[in-house]
Structures are given as structure tokens and as C-alpha cells.
Amino acid sequence: MLRELTSLAVGYYAVVLILTINAINQGSDTFQVFQSWFSSPIAVIINLIALVLAIHHSITWFSLAPKAMVIQIGEKKVPGFLISGMNYGAWIVLSGTLIWFFLK
Hints:
elongated
């Protein structure tokens, strides 16, 4: 049940993304106000909690993925560790790419 509640953190990040794009579209003054609020101590704490919950959500989904996505090639089923491994690999590659892009 905790895993299902962690989806609220994923939804929170979707809303934050929409609000960020909206603030950017409204101009630099609006974005500066948004950014100053977003760097306040309470916002940082909320985001850290949401980050931990989102990471937990991702890890538990990748662990459940082999049960949710049974892949069969001919008569053989793809082992669960390969399905989980591909999910974790994609997560690492995409995260690394985004980190490289934003820190560049």
C-alpha cells in the first residue's frame, strides 16, 4: 500500500514541471519569483521527501516489472532479472544523460 501512495510523489513532480514551464513562459520576473520560492527551506524539504518517495516508487516498480511484463520468445520466457536489469539500465543511462546535459 505504501508503494501506491508513493505515486503521489510522481504526480507532485509532474505538477512541479508544469508550474516550472508556466513560470518560464510568463517571463524572467515570474520565473525568478518561482525559483526563489522553490529554493526556500520548506520547498527543499518537500522536494527531498518527494525525491525519496519517487525513487522508492521506481525501485519497487522495476522489481515488479517481470511479473507485469511477461515476455515470451517462442516457447521460452525471458528471465525476470533481464527485464528488471534492462529497466535499471535504462534508468541509469537516462539519468546520467540528463545530469550530464544540465551540468554541462
